[in-house]
Amino acid sequence: MSRFPNGRPLDEFDRIHRLLQKKRLDVPLLAQLCVVKMNSNCLVSVDRWYGWRGFVAMLGSIGVAFGVGGILMLAWILVVGELPNENGLWEAVFISMGMSAALAAASAWVACKEMFRWTHYPIVLDRKHRLVHVFRLDGSVLTAPWDKIFFTLGRGRGAFGWLNWDIRGLILEDDGVTVKETFAFCIVTSRIENAHSHWEFLRRYMEEGPQAVLAAVLFCMPVDGRRESFAFCKERIFANDAQSPAFMYLLMAPFNYVHAALRWAVMRTSTIPAFPPEIEAALQPEPGDRFVRDASMNPEDLR
Fold it and tell me: What is the pTM of this model?
């Protein structure tokens, strides 16, 4: 819903939390279910919004349901209930119906921030050419040299006022100070340690190769050239609460099923992203590459 702040100078926070491409961190690796596919040439990752895809559409759909439901209820009172046209009752009903219609329209606009867009916004670590390719929200592609990107931690305000850590890539102007464009990797976490672990996963792939991160890749997201199945939508949403206490997991279950249904709707209505042919060609593995990983490694129902 909001945009990253661009057209600004680097601040003290950016510099304090800078992540250096050549500096190895002694932390466990965390893939964070980001990998779409991987080989010796490239690693394709999902985006910052992927894990919670469907949440905004769900909120919008709730608003649409309330708006449409309000209109139908008022129409029922007016027509079937034979509400008398006295003391301004009809005027009050029509004004309320207009307000309900406005709520439904605004909520539909919110839902369309996710629906009828793209199934995901992939980020490619092109190790062979030491480039990063980012699929933007408008469908265009940003390409930047890995070594020239200013990587840093960022903070975003999450639900209920929680502050979340993420990993951002800042594209700087020629002056080396002004932020021209910002993108963010997959992880959004309340713990800075997790953000460092995910950065180290990405950094080691680029600097040390796929063999350095292979053990951390347990599943691949089945969105390469296709849409998620409902079974995977459900699995991915419930994975967000995998570390929660049992009572919280059970409490969130009904909410998560609704979230999964809206995630599936988002996937059904959205376009599958595709990079230009020259980038797609660079993503292909070499014959006999033993580090190829994709969704075929997942359990059969989650491929």
Answer: 0.90
